[in-house]
């Protein structure tokens, strides 16, 4: 009987240790996204802010890898996509693509000031259509994958350790939404900030649920890339039309 109680207490202590470790990892990672955005768009739009923003972007990629290898002792692996994952990603992506363009056509044109958007873009170094296309190609194809790796594979997994179950999906989606609020606020008025933040939160829920369902990033990555393509089209219309 005493041995059983000892095992139960040991399991509780191990579980508490895992939760503290997960909380520490999230504390060191999640704020970096907002810090980079605030530095680049609000505090120091020049070279200093850009440098800090780039550092934060690198941190969002390198930290999960280093933590997984040296702290969690996990081996990183890449699995080939399954047909069901590709189909789910395409369906969700097309749905988000249509919703984003539809919302912009109905409301966004009245909420986003093109003068402010152009000024912020110039501050970030986007001064020509060619540069814009290069930047957006990176965001659609590469950054969407990095975000899925960071916010779904790492953050969502850590949230599941803190609060197992579906609540972890909502918590990870909230973390994912926080830095997007600052991005949206830099380019538009408060109605767009509210609607855009809710849209990002909903997308985060869909992508986290896809990851939890398939235990793979392919579905969420494909839909994320298609959604970012819609945003790239809107950005082109605002800046160059």
SS-derived structural category: mainly alpha
Shape: globular
> What is the typical, i.e. mean, pLDDT?
90
Count of separate DSSP helical elements: 8
Order of helices and strands: HHHHHHHH
Question: Which regions have little confidence, pLDDT < 50, spanning 5+ residues?
Answer: 1-15
Relative helix content: over 70%
Model description:
The protein has eight helices and no strands. The protein is mainly α and 241 residues long. Helix 5 packs antiparallel against helix 8. The radius of gyration is 20 Å and the shape is globular.
Give the helix/strand layout.
Layout: H1 2-43, H2 47-71, H3 83-111, H4 114-123, H5 129-162, H6 167-187, H7 190-214, H8 218-240
What would you say about this model in short?
The protein is mainly α and 241 residues long. It is built from 8 helices and no strands.
Structural features:
single chain, disordered N terminus, 241 residues, mainly alpha
